[in-house]
């Protein structure tokens, strides 16, 4: 399924913070940063910490375990952009007071 689904309501996520929501078999971290919502996979690719528990500053979230920083807009690891490490990022929109996330369909090849 690639449609947008409501995960939260505006006002549920304080500015500069994140919250984790189960969504289509994935734990999604949704952040409110400088008035905009962003969504990334909640699990840090390093050791699996919950990114929604990390601190948010300057368009990035810092992993609460080892301080790895990921850009909210695209999930890129900011401490080594050439390393190719990232966490998945997802499209977000607000419809009325509904915060909606879209996770693209995963294609099975074989």
CATH topology: Rieske Iron-sulfur Protein
Query: Helical region count?
Result: 0
Total domain count: 1
Structural class: mainly beta
Question: How are the strands of the biggest sheet laid out side by side?
Answer: 1-9-8-4-3-2
Q: Helix and strand string, N-terminal first?
A: EEEEEEEEE
In words, what does this structure look like?
With 110 residues, this protein is mainly beta. The protein has one domain (5-102): 3-layer Sandwich (Rieske Iron-sulfur Protein). Helices cover 0% and strands 43% of the residues. It is built from no helices and nine strands. It has strands at residues 5-9, 17-23, 26-33, 36-41, 55-57, 60-62, 69-71, 89-95, 98-102. The strands form two sheets. A six-stranded antiparallel beta sheet has the order 1-9-8-4-3-2, with no helix packed on it. Strands 5-6-7 form a three-stranded antiparallel beta sheet, with no helix packed on it. Strand 3 (26-33) and strand 4 form a beta hairpin. The model has no long low-confidence stretch (mean pLDDT 90).
Would you kindly provide a brief summary of this structure?
This protein has strands at 5-9, 17-23, 26-33, 36-41, 55-57, 60-62, 69-71, 89-95, 98-102. It is mainly beta.
SSE arrangement:
Layout: E1 5-9, E2 17-23, E3 26-33, E4 36-41, E5 55-57, E6 60-62, E7 69-71, E8 89-95, E9 98-102
Descriptive terms for the model:
110 residues, mainly beta, Rieske Iron-sulfur Protein, six-stranded antiparallel beta sheet, three-stranded antiparallel beta sheet, globular
């Amino acid at each position: 399924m690639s449609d947008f689904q409501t995960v939260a309501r505006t006002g549920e996520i304080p500015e500069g913070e994140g919250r984790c929501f189960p969504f289509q078999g994935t734990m999604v971290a949704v952040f409110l940063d400088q008035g905009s919502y962003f969504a990334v996979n909640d699990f840090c690719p390093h050791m699996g910490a919950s990114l929604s528990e990390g601190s948010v500053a300057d368009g990035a979230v810092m992993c609460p375990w080892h301080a790895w920083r990921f850009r909210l807009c695209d999930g890129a690891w900011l401490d080594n952009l050439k390393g190719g490490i990232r966490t998945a990022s997802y499209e977000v929109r607000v419809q009325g007071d509904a915060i909606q996330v879209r996770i693209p369909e995963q294609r099975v090849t074989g």
